[in-house]
Specification:
single chain, alpha+beta, six-stranded antiparallel sheet, 24% strand
Length: 463
């Protein structure tokens, strides 16, 4: 999840060439930063948030300046400038030092240079060029968190958990995440070869993926028959909350007056997360009241509580949420909120376990920091950091083959059987033949979805 904030620092001057580094550090460290708080451009009506002009101070007083460590840093900087085999400019060394500081904190904190700001904007607006995969770093390689639905990567066979070790003929070892992402991007129609390591495979796999302009519709819907609706959220963008409400309303409208919506499958599998406010809005839409999530960190603006507002759009209709190891961050917020408030049954496998909040601190017009500033907690006080959400019903991926059985004779097959004078089963008017075929095909290939439908139907019978 992301918050966006602007940081303004005072400037200090120095007369010498390298001692300025030491002098500047003394000037900047004690400064408290002012911030303008936002949440990816979205309002936060359900949160108890601090005022926008609150100070981002850590503790009551500034920490003492680590003089010896800063002197050591300045000396290393000077030695590199004077003795490294090739000449290196000041900006390169400073930027590398900043990146090193942040990469040593956690996998999600990063120094945002101009291209990274653009990428961040693209990920929240839902349109960008590339392969269509959400990635992170693991052991120096690029790990696929999840391929995005209906993108070149998914269609080519890239799977969640794959480790990318080469892009074309170039090893990714030693690359930063931003550098690897830049290498995967390119002109639509051009091709990149991914060399990946996948659990269960004896050796590396090579997958060719054709780049395309990725325009992601984050919410998809369909009817599955028997009054069961299906909504899939591929990632949480700024508009996802509103799109989710519209999707549920359209499912109700498609059923018409003859049949009510009896249950909903909410599919969050392989959803890498996204905007915090969107996760809050989706949870709020399904809850009548109660706490959704709260965050806690060292700065005052990171201490937030998000509460549900009255109005369950399903009016108590049973919900089953599907999760797996690719469900991360905002997906885990929704699953945790619905689980702790006993509003939905969570089915699938353990989630990814990203329980931290990143704040975007803008340094100037082109540079910033993406810094982990808080952990989030489910309504019951659980932190799922590095643990994940455990499903109520554990269902692993599986392939199910229906056995061919011998013909069974029934009463209707007997000569002279009595005709049933009652009404015959009518056609489900809410679904066309094409819709029925598409739903049946999807269910037959997805064991977890099939089990979710069975759970919903059981709940409907007992209700």
């Amino acid at each position: 999840m992301l918050f966006a904030q602007r940081v303004m620092a005072a400037r200090c001057s120095s007369r010498t060439v390298y001692p300025w580094l030491l002098s500047a550090a003394f000037c900047l460290l004690p400064i408290a930063h002012a911030a303008e708080e936002a949440s990816e451009g979205a309002e936060v009506p359900a949160a108890e948030a601090p005022a926008a002009d609150s100070e981002l101070t850590v503790g009551a007083a500034p920490s003492p300046v680590p003089v010896d460590d800063i002197r050591k840093f300045a000396e290393v900087f000077d030695r590199i400038k004077k003795t490294y085999v090739e000449e290196v400019d000041d900006a390169t060394l400073i930027n590398s030092a900043i990146r090193g500081m942040l990469s040593g904190l956690d996998p999600h904190s990063a120094y945002l240079e101009p291209s990274a700001f653009e990428s961040l904007q693209e990920s929240t607006t839902g349109e960008f060029g590339g392969l269509g995969i959400e990635v992170g770093m693991e052991d120096g390689f690029i790990k696929v968190i999840t391929p995005i639905d209906d993108t070149p990567a998914q269609k080519a066979g890239v799977e969640a958990g794959d480790l990318i070790i080469k892009l074309d003929e170039q090893s990714v070892k030693g690359m930063t995440l931003d550098q690897a992402v830049d290498a995967m991007r390119g002109a639509p129609g051009s091709e990149v070869k991914l060399t990946i390591i996948r659990d269960g495979e004896e050796g590396p796999l090579e997958i060719a993926v054709e780049r395309a302009v990725i325009s992601v519709n984050s919410v998809k819907r369909m009817l599955l028959g028997g009054g069961v609706g299906y909504v899939r959220i591929t990632q949480f963008q700024a508009q996802t909350g509103g799109d989710f409400v519209k999707a549920v309303q359209r499912l109700k409208k498609a059923l018409g007056e003859k049949e009510a919506l009896k249950g909903l499958i909410l599919d969050l599998r392989n959803n890498p997360g996204g905007v915090l406010q969107a996760a809050v809005e989706v949870s709020d839409a399904l809850l009548e009241d109660g706490l959704i999530v709260y965050t806690d960190g060292r700065i005052r603006s990171s201490k937030l509580r998000f509460n549900a507002t009255p109005g369950d759009i399903l009016e108590g209709v049973p919900v089953v949420v599907l999760i797996n190891g690719g469900s991360a961050s905002a997906s885990e917020i929704v699953a945790g909120a619905l689980q702790d408030n006993r509003r939905a049954i969570i089915l699938g496998t353990d989630t990814f376990g990203k329980g931290s909040v990143q704040t975007v601190l803008q340094l100037d017009d082109t540079h910033g920091l993406k810094l982990t500033t808080a952990r989030y907690y489910t309504p019951s006080g659980r932190s799922i950091q590095a643990l994940g959400i455990e499903p109520d019903i554990l269902v692993n991926r599986a392939k199910v083959t229906e056995l061919q059985s011998s013909p069974i004779f029934k009463e209707a097959d007997l000569a002279g059987h009595l005709v049933n004078g009652g009404s015959k089963k009518g056609k489900n008017s809410a679904m066309s033949e094409e819709d029925v075929k598409a739903a049946s095909e999807m269910i037959s290939k997805d064991f977890q979805l099939r089990e979710g439908i069975n759970v919903l139907r059981g709940l409907t019978i007992l209700k």
